[in-house]
Every structure is written in structure tokens, then in C-alpha cells.
Amino acid sequence: MGRLVVVSNRVPVPKRGEAPAAGGLAVALKDAFSGRGGLWFGWSGTASEEPADLVRHARRGGVDYAVIDLSRRAYDGFYAGYANSALWPMFHFRLGLLSYDRDQAECYRIVNRRYADKLMPLLRPDDTIWVHDYQMIPLGAELRARGSKHRIGYFHHIPFPPWAVFSAMPGAEDLIRDLLSYDLVGVQTNRDLTGLIDSMAQGTGMKVRPGGEVRFRDRRTRLRSFPIAIATQEFADLAAESVKTPKVQRFQESLAGRSLVIGAERLDYTKGLPERLRAFGALLEGFPEHRNRVTYLQIAARSREDVESYKDLKREIETLAGRINGDYSEADWTPVRYVGRAQPRDLLAGYYRMAQVGLVTPLRDGMNLVAKEYVAAQDPEDPGVLVLSRFAGAAESMPEALLVNPLDAVGTAEAMNTALVMPLQERRERHAAMFRRLGENSVQDWAKDFLNVLEGKDPAEAPPARA
Ligand code: G6P
Predict the structure, then answer these.
(1) For the packed helices 369-377 and 232-242, what is the interaxial angle rounded to 10 degrees?
(2) Bridge-partner residues for 41, per DSSP?
(3) SS3 content of the chain, % helix, strand, coil (to 5)
(4) Which of 84, 182, 217, 276 suits 435 as a labelling partner, its CA being 20 to 30 A distant?
(5) What ligand 1 atom has the least distance to the C-alpha of 84?
(6) Which residues of 10-23 are buried (b: 16+ CB within 10 A; e: fewer)?
(7) Is the pLDDT of residue 355 over 50?
(8) Torsion region of 27: left, alpha or beta (phi above 0 gives left; psi -120 to 50 gives alpha)
(9) Is the CB of 24 under 6 A from ligand 1?
(10) Is 158 touching ligand 1 by the criterion CB < 6 Å?
(11) Residue 330 and residue 218: Cα distance in Å, rounded?
């Protein structure tokens, strides 16, 4: 078996002598790398003033890491520009926020070309290549243009809209056609798969065969959904340990017996944070019995601060949180506690376990792992309740959550109230059903399933044609 080569925009290179990152792709790929060796390639996370062309290598735990810096220009055009000001809003159905600039679109192509130039000499003939996410869509086509005959798969971590939305992007036809260079294109949910098939059929004019397959020249591209999972038991154990630590205990004491409602994510307009704050305001307005009885902790990790729409969002959230606190605070109670920085994973796990209500209300989200982690973190004897947007991919497999439309502030407030007063027996039943389902799929299974289909090892699938 050849090596696994992973390409993603961010590459979590472990520090020397340290374990790999505890969350995200690193966990998912650990098993996939082991036994076959591998290479992980992408951006170093650094934007340098110098034109940066050097590939830096590191070897950790049997995996080779190869990263390159972006020049400041490339960072502005590729990362802050096209990827996060045009592709990101389009894929999240936010056409009003889509800001297209032809130079930035060109910069995106140039960076993908450069990645292909740098990656190509590092490849061996029997490698399998797995490309991740929207920052890298053209990479497959660029590798093919340089003669790559490898099996190449692409996984799209964020939502995939139908053509009616996708086609708003200038150059949409090129972008969707780029996906035909892959042997397998994976998305998170059935809803995304419907979007992908619709965009593929309409955007390329090609027939998508039943089962999700497009034939173009001598390649067939399979279209499939692979819902991403978490390491459920590990997270449950982490949470159970974390609540005992002095830091989390101190936080518990600071609540003085009040219920806790929690939200935690990157500060991103797709996460529905202003809508959620308004819903919390509506809870205090419409259900006065919760005043001075409930505290809402919102953790919003700063993100993409060079992009204008993220700056606007930050101001809006600060204003809203301030207004609610101004309207409802008592000398001994602050309704909204707002933490504008990322928090360590173990602390988060403890906070989730303490919270009677988990608020996960994105306007659109590929999957949303906070929803899954919140459920995993609960004490099964006395679990909290998940209030979940039906627009999160996670909603497809978590029907026992209280599903809401986050644009409906009063409806979301009503769900929060239902969660806060839900009887123990019902909480246990809902939690047990979701926890059981989470345990059926590990994050390692997710990677294995994708690679099995890509490499023709899934018994349900015939082997893919080699180009
Ligand atoms: C989402 C995307 C990832 C991205 C991450 C963090 O999860 O799907 O591709 O890496 O957000 O965003 P950032 O812009 O900081 O990489």
C-alpha cells in the first residue's frame, strides 16, 4: 500500500517531542497514517513579507510534514481574499456578503498552482492523495496538468449549495469543473450531496448517474457523503476529568447556583451569534422567571480578523452583549459572559459538561462538531439539553436535540426555555439516544470510509478507474 498524502490549508505540525493536536483532522488521520506512512502538505500559517518559496520539512511520529509560507500578497489575495471573502460566503449561502475581485480569484489559482509545483516532486507513484476543503479546490486539476496519475480525493468540510446559489460566483463553471479531476468528492451530509449533484449536473452539463457518479474523459468521479464524527468516549472522559479541576470548579462557584447556557465557536457570521444573543434577550424578556437564574457564557474565538465582514460582526456582538447586560444585569448577576478568545480544549469540555443548555445555532454549517462534543461531554445521569439549528449538518443525525430555526428569535427562546425546564427523564432519553449514535461512528471510521471508497476497498463499490 502506498503512502497517504494529505493536503490541507492549515497543517498542524506537532512541536518536537509533543503529541499531535488533540482535535480536528489530526485525530481523524492518525490511524489512517499509521502503518503506511504519510505526508501532510500545506500552508505553514505564516504570511511573510519576503516572497516565500521554500518548503520546510519536519518528521514527527512517522509522518512527514511539508509546509510553505504565503507571501503577504498571497495571504491577502488567496486567504483573506478569494477563499474567505468570496468562496466562504457563497458556500454558506450568504450571497450578500460575497465580495468578488478578479485579481484575488487569480491569486487563488496561482497559490494552488504553486502548491502543485511544490507537491509534485515530493510524490511517489503509488501515493494516495487526499485534498481538504475549499481553499484547495483547483489542486487536483493542477496536479493532473503536471501528469499526476494518483488516486486523488477531495473532501469538502463546509456546506455545498445547489447551482442556483453556486452559480452566483463569477467563474462558477470553472470551479465546479475542477472537481472532475478528483476520483472522489466527499461532502458532509445528504443535503450537501443534493447540492453537489445539482451544481455538478447544471454547472458542467454532464449527467450524474444514479449513485452519484460522473464520467468525464477517462475518469469517473464519485460523489458521496461522509458525515464527520468525533472521538466520543475520549471527549466524554476529558469532560468528566475537567469538571474536577480547580479552574472549572471556580467557574462553577462563580455561577452561584444559576443554570448555565453555553455557546462556543469561532467568531464567524455563519455561526448565528447576533441571532443567538437576540434569542437570549427574548428569553429574558418573554420568560422573566429566568432572570437572575440563568447565565449565558459565549466563547467566540477571534478568526479571520483581516476580513471586513468579521470586523463588523465583532462590533455587532459586542454591542448586543452590552445591551442585554445593560437591560437585565443586577448588581450580583451578569446575564451574558462574553469571552472573545479561544479556550483550551479541556476547559471547554468541562464547561460543556456543566452547562444545562448547549446552544449551537449556526445559520449554515457543514457539520458542527461542537454539537457532538456538547452531547459527548454530558453526565449521562443528569445531562444538559442541546438546542440545535436545523441548518447545521449535525441536525441530520441528532433529531433528539431541540431543533430550531435560528432566524426565529422567539422560537429559539422558547426552545431554550423548554431545555431549561425539561424533566430529568426526558433529558436522559434524548441524551442516551444521541450518545449511542455518536458512539457508532468514530472519527477514524470517517477517514477510513473515505479512503476505502477512494482506494476501491469498499465492498459496496467497484474499484475506481485509474486515469
Ligand atoms: C472551517 C473550515 C476550515 C478552516 C477552519 C478555520 O472549519 O472548514 O477549512 O481551516 O474553519 O478557519 P481558518 O481560516 O482559521 O483556517
Answers:
(1) 60
(2) 7, 66
(3) 45, 20, 35
(4) 276
(5) 14
(6) ebbbeeeeeebeeb
(7) yes
(8) alpha
(9) no
(10) yes
(11) 69
| Average pLDDT, integer, range 175-199 | 98
> Per-residue confidence at 461, pLDDT binned at 50, 70, 90?
confident
CB 448 near ligand 1, within 6 Å: no
Distance from the alpha carbon of residue 217 to the mean position of ligand 1, in angstroms: 33
- For residue 158, the ligand 1 atom closest to its alpha carbon is 8
Name the residue among 21, 59, 54, 23 with its Cα closest to residue 40: 59
Kindly indicate whether the ipTM for this predicted assembly is greater than 0.90, answering yes or no: yes
CA-132 nearest atom, ligand 1? 9
- Give the mean model confidence (pLDDT) for residues 208-222: 95
157 Cα: distance to centroid of ligand 1 (angstroms)? 9
Model pTM?
0.97
The three grid cell numbers given for residue 273, joined into one nine-digit string? 451569534
In tens, the pLDDT along 83-105 reads 999 999 999 999 999 999 999 99
Q: Indicate the length of the chain as a whole number.
A: 467
Q: Rounded CA gap, 200 and 167, in Å? A: 11
**Residue 119 and residue 116: Cα distance in Å, rounded?**
5
CB-based contacts of 206, cutoff 8 Å, min separation 6: 180, 200, 214, 215, 216
Residue type, 446: W
- Give the ligand 1 atom nearest the CA of 304: 14
Confidence of residue 287 (pLDDT cuts 50, 70, 90): very high
For residue 267, how far is its CA from the centre of ligand 1 (angstroms)?
Answer: 11
Task: Lowest mean pLDDT of 34-38, 94-98, 120-124, 223-227, name the range.
Answer: 34-38
Q: Is 353 in the pocket of ligand 1 (CB under 6 A)?
A: no
So which residues are the catalytic ones?
157, 365
Query: Is residue 73 within 8 Å of 103, Cβ to Cβ?
Result: no
Instruction: Compute the distance between CA of residue 140 and CA of residue 199 in angstroms, rounded to an integer.
Output: 18
303 lines ligand 1 (CB under 6 A): yes
Q: What is the mean pLDDT of residues 170-188?
A: 98
pLDDT at 463: 52
pLDDT digits (tens, 9 = 90+) for 11-61: 999 999 888 787 789 988 988 999 898 999 999 999 988 766 789 999 998
Task: Provide CB contacts within 8 A for 326, sequence distance 6+.
Answer: none
Cβ atoms of 36 and 3 within 8 Å: the answer is: yes
